[in-house]
Specification:
The protein is 16% helix and 47% strand. It has one domain. By secondary structure, the protein is of the alpha+beta class. β8 and β9 form a beta hairpin. The protein contains one helix and nine strands; from the N terminus they run αβββββββββ.
Length: 102
């Protein structure tokens, strides 16, 4: 088993037991990975039969969240912020949109 496979096994095992993990990376970036979701009563649960997963990355006042249904982005409201929106096509022919915040 390679180091990558061991890390992935440990990560998935931790998620199945605890629901999420938060990692602190260089330059103040925090990455949180989870498999929890709310049930019909609003309780946070881990559903072993579901393939649901979410990732949240934060740094300072910026954050993005990606899950099976959404892509969310928030950032500090600064008048000097520039938003650049672009469209492209992947090598597989899939049209994509790109948003850069500078």
């Amino acid at each position: 088993m390679s180091k990558k496979d061991k890390i992935q096994y440990l990560l998935i095992s931790h998620l199945k037991k605890n629901g999420s993990i938060q990692l602190t990376l260089p330059d103040g970036i925090s990455v949180e990975i989870g498999i929890t979701q709310e049930d019909a009563r609003g309780d946070v649960v881990i559903d072993d039969d579901d393939d649901y997963c979410w990732v949240k990355a934060t740094r300072s006042h910026s954050e993005f969240i990606l899950d099976s249904f959404n892509l969310g982005l928030s950032y500090e409201d600064d008048p000097s912020t520039i938003l650049v929106e672009d469209a492209d096509i992947t090598d597989e022919g899939v049209p994509i949109k790109r948003l850069d915040i500078v």
